[in-house]
Amino acid sequence: MGTAKRQPWVVGVSGASGTPYAASVIRALLSAGEAVDLIVSRAARLTILDETGISFRDAHWRTDLAAWLGTEEAALDDVRYWPAGDFAAGPSSGSYPAKGMLVVPATTGAVAGIALGLSKDLLQRVASVTLKERRPLVVCVRETPLNGVTLKHLVELDAQGAVVLPASPGFYAGGSTVRELVDFVAGRVLDAARVPHSLYLRWEGELGAAARKAGGGEGARAEGE
Ligand SMILES: Cc1cc2nc3c(=O)[nH]c(=O)nc-3n(C[C@H](O)[C@H](O)[C@H](O)COP(=O)(O)O)c2cc1C
Q1: 169 C-alpha vs ligand 1 centroid, how far in Å?
Q2: Looking at ligand 1, which atom is closest to the CA of residue 44?
Q3: What is the C-alpha to C-alpha distance for residues 65 and 20, in angstroms, rounded to an integer?
């Protein structure tokens, strides 16, 4: 009964480029006091290895996740990890008290599988469950350019109630470093989930304001033109 009140966000990491987006989302959820249930697709092991040098292992997920997030293992007490092949995992059922799911980054394969209800692995199964339970589902797709079939699948996801959120950083928030641009996308993912954060400077109706706060730059010059 002690865990009955735990209501996690499920974070599904699929094998698209953009693993820093996932790391930023997980860090921000934990900072906001949210519990996280993590699913890493088989293909995502390749992207994590490629982009971080970390071999993500089911048996040592806590150690590997701590290395990936750049945090202490002790900071991961609110994280539960479910192997991608485990269809008996908690979030596989609608009766599991998940708040919703954030797929970040989402491959075109995951987009297709979720749109068509394939449930080919735990990530896709939990996304289907999230939709059927009418819980928030945010799909942070990462691919460019997009082919016609993916565009159709994205429209289908939107029709089913998912938030389609391309991994597409905005520059109006004054970000210039890779970390700031990554955090912008992660912040928009948390916005879609209604989770508070301070990952980027919000637009306040004043041209160039964010750039000036960040120390000047294009926006500051544009205002004087
Ligand atoms: C290094 C690397 C980068 C990839 N980047 C992307 C990507 O940005 N977008 C995408 O849709 N697929 C990408 N792929 C291909 C997917 O990993 C592949 O389609 C896989 O089947 C997706 O499986 P999943 O949806 O179960 O994770 C990439 C693969 C590798 C190895």
Answers
A1: 20
A2: 27
A3: 12
